[in-house]
Amino acid sequence: MADDRFLVVGLGNPGPKYETTRHNAGFLVLELLADRIGGRFKTHRSRADVVEGRLAGLPVVLAKPRSYMNESGGPVKAVASFYKIPVERVVVVHDELDVPFGTLRVKRGGGDGGHNGLRSTSSALGSREYARVRFGIGRPPGRQDPADYVLRDFAAAERKDLGFEVDRAADAVEAVLTDGVEAAQNRFHAG
């Protein structure tokens, strides 16, 4: 039954040019979640790559929009509509400038904070009331343009810990699914 399914969306940009950039943190987490359920992303007519399976014992659809970040909403809405998943059961994983690298934040709803992928997603869904797993990438150094910063690869020091941080973010997604946003906040906001 579709009603008990969750949709977990990772935001990022398609193509090898962006694969290892900060803006693709959501895609990195979704790749790990696909590994956890033993699935491979397949092209879907919704302009997203999807994997269906069970995560933490719950039925999920994992999706990576094939659009650029600022146009993520159309594919997210199309996947949610196709699988008949209500906004309350949508979890979006994305990079977050306002959170330091090595820090995760979980929340439901709220603004987009200048994040074009969130703006597009909220607009397309007609709601901001989806859960978010915010993967901290920190602010750019000095006067570097944030738009340039998010499209750069993680720094060498960050890459050293990136696998661990992606794993923690995947754990946070599972906690949101199994225990809810508040419990996930209590677990992952410590420290």
Automatic annotation (TrEMBL):
EC code(s) of this entry: 3.1.1.29
Reactions that this protein is recorded to catalyse: an N-acyl-L-alpha-aminoacyl-tRNA + H2O = an N-acyl-L-amino acid + a tRNA + H(+)
Marked site (Discriminates between blocked and unblocked aminoacyl-tRNA) residue numbers: 13
GO cellular component, one term: cytoplasm
Catalytic center residues: 23
Compartment(s) of residence: Cytoplasm
Binding site for tRNA: 18, 68, 70, 116
Gene3D superfamilies hit by this protein: Peptidyl-tRNA hydrolase
Biological process annotations from GO: protein quality control for misfolded or incompletely synthesized proteins; rescue of stalled ribosome
Sequence similarity: Belongs to the PTH family.
Quaternary state and interactors: Monomer.
Protein name: Peptidyl-tRNA hydrolase
Source species of the chain: Jatrophihabitans endophyticus
